[in-house]
Specification:
- Two copies of one chain form a homodimer.
- Chain A is an alpha/beta fold and 410 residues long.
- The first copy, chain A, has two domains: 4-42 and 297-404, Aspartate Aminotransferase, domain 1 (Alpha-Beta Complex); 68-294, 3-Layer(aba) Sandwich (Aspartate Aminotransferase, domain 2).
- Chain A is 38% helix and 13% strand.
- Chain A has 14 helices and 13 strands.
- Chain A has helices at 4-12, 44-58, 63-66, 72-83, 97-111, 126-138, 153-156, 179-188, 238-241, 280-294, 298-319, 346-355, 379-395, 401-404; strands at residues 30-31, 91-93, 117-121, 144-148, 161-167, 192-196, 215-218, 233-236, 325-326, 338-342, 358-359, 361-363, 367-371.
- In chain A, the strands form three sheets. Chain A has a seven-stranded mixed sheet with strand order 2-8-7-6-5-3-4, sandwiched between helices.
- In chain A, β5, α8 (179-188) and β6 (192-196) form a beta-alpha-beta unit.
- The longest helix of chain A is centred in the C-terminal third of the chain and has 22 residues, at 298-319.
- Chain A is globular.
- Chains A and B meet through α2, α3, α5, α6 and α10 of A and α2, α3, α5, α6 and α10 of B.
Chain lengths: 410, 410
Amino acid sequence: MLTRNDCARHDAGDPLAGFRERFALPPDVIYLDGNSLGALPRDTPARVAALIETEWGRDLITSWNRHAWIELPARLGDKIARLIGAAPGEVAVADSTSVNLFKLLSGALDLVPERRVVLSDTGNFPTDLYVAQGLLGLRCGRLALRTVEETALIDAIDGETAVVLLTQVNYRTGRLHDLHDVTAAAHRAGALVLWDLSHSAGALPVALNAAGADFAVGCGYKYLNGGPGAPAFLFVAGRHQERLRPPLSGWMGHEAPFAFDPDYRPARGIARQLCGTPAILSLAALEVGVDLMLEADLGALRTKSMALGALFVDLVEQRCAGVLTLASPRDPAARGSQVSLRHPHGYAIVQALIARGVIADFRAPDILRFGFAPLYLRHVDVWDAVAQLADIMQSRAWDKPEFHRRAAVT
Amino acid sequence: MLTRNDCARHDAGDPLAGFRERFALPPDVIYLDGNSLGALPRDTPARVAALIETEWGRDLITSWNRHAWIELPARLGDKIARLIGAAPGEVAVADSTSVNLFKLLSGALDLVPERRVVLSDTGNFPTDLYVAQGLLGLRCGRLALRTVEETALIDAIDGETAVVLLTQVNYRTGRLHDLHDVTAAAHRAGALVLWDLSHSAGALPVALNAAGADFAVGCGYKYLNGGPGAPAFLFVAGRHQERLRPPLSGWMGHEAPFAFDPDYRPARGIARQLCGTPAILSLAALEVGVDLMLEADLGALRTKSMALGALFVDLVEQRCAGVLTLASPRDPAARGSQVSLRHPHGYAIVQALIARGVIADFRAPDILRFGFAPLYLRHVDVWDAVAQLADIMQSRAWDKPEFHRRAAVT
């Protein structure tokens, strides 16, 4: 039987252990929600303060050149490219994940005009489905969104499929789609794939180009630790870039933004995917998180992530047997960096955990979601979290009115 | 003949004089580019630091409820509403001006499906035209963008006009469209109007509802002093809100974002215009700028703005007569809060001014643009700026190689 000392021993041998110090984690909290909002890197406050006080306050408008603000979306994109197996010039940072999904889904559909189906899985994150619904309602033609169970996805790709729209890691269950296999199956059928890497980037190594991926988007505020509502990124494989027509054709994606021509001409390369003026404050904060992630070995990151998840599953099964159901694949290699459990009173149980300083989250209707951000979590954190969870379940500490009261955001 | 002492006397009697202290202006700079990037409010660094360190760093994901992050787009929208003559619930803050233009132009076109023309003026800010071009290329139907000279705009509205798309204050010349007259003319012809208030909000009083306006967007980083790339705002008149179909249908605009339904159902009211997760860092910075602007009397702001512009025109005509041409209307009531001059070597002249600490900007092909943000500029600043300008013109100090070298951003 595993002990807390065993966990501490694992932490002592953890090659990533030094990263925990680089985050400003509150002392009395076990934070298992880095999959929803990543923790604050220690360097972020000083970087943002310098940006505000020196670059904005002192150098004002001249900072677009003097501090190269204008290059930030591409420079930061090139850094994120290294985390997701993309080449320089294939990634930019801009807008939100939802807006970027719209851009790339629209651009992808232009490339296969004779096909009519956007295929996704029923468990895709709702905004991905909503964005597809909005776009299809806007465009000409008989386009349709079709969703199937995730296990039936590959078999559902057929000659009518224009674009496969998938989130690599399911936000509820953590189940991982095989990037390579799905992309290959889509290409064999003549379809394109748009990947949402929101729960992948910074959580596990992603090899976009090795998989022959076409398009991807992802989130800056989860495992990349960019702060609440951080800008998102988008990837367009080099071979598609010059053929892609940006539907959101704003001035920052123009070939010559400061020529102030009346007609839109898309910039060469990934820059055409920019739209309005970049959010410099938010980009600067995100860059700190990405720089920190780039110091880590992504293989070691994945190894630790799988170990933390497996430890959590083992401990829950030992200590909460028969009370909580595993909602994630049991095989760590089949999951992203989260483990989910099911319980009819999931919401109240999560609130009871939060009241004890163990921060997880709830996803309707019955999912308790535990994220394991391997840069800053320890094995002892997992041990302590399960100890609280087991106690809450045994004592029914969750069954209090205040834990059933739903907040605006769950 | 006016003297610098006369200017100092005007400043001593300025009811807005106290606001200058509230900005962290560099001591050796005269900043005449607040129309491009507003100055830094003194309270912004502390507010952003608290947001980062306490709300993000300490309270982490719980801040969505605990610090009401989820309400920020609407709360800040209600504040901006007071600056632009809108009612509570008619304004939200989200995304960029370009993205918001796309949303509302698409929504507006749905309301007049039998009409085929988006009408704008040839001098509209390019991103407004680009966004219209991108949207029209995407949508079904024989939609077309038609541009006419700004003086011919009202007469060009006809029975084919679906939406009039206009920036109230011309970014090059500062010329002001009459919000009320254009809106009334459009409505008489059965058309709708989408106003871009990027150079209006915080520069002059705007009375959207008094003018019967339909839709508007605007910028957070100019006169609202929200910081580089601050989020933008959008206005939808109450009477149109429930009929508007959001083309960018992201989860934050869903009726119940945390129900995670697979089908998009738009939220009631302005909230349906949200798309992805709001950029909390940037919203917090913008709120400081908006709060500061709300302390000012907008009538006094406009009076001072017109006085500063008129002073600038008088001094330029006295001291640079025949050398620089006025590119703005002479009547201060016909301008926004900027004055533009024309010169074939405009770019180099602006660089020479910047080298002397007078920050203006250049707009191709030949416009020197001087913005007068009335919250923090003094009459003596205008005096001193024109003194430098006159000296540069007389001595041809602009005619040096380094001032002709074009930077990435102009």
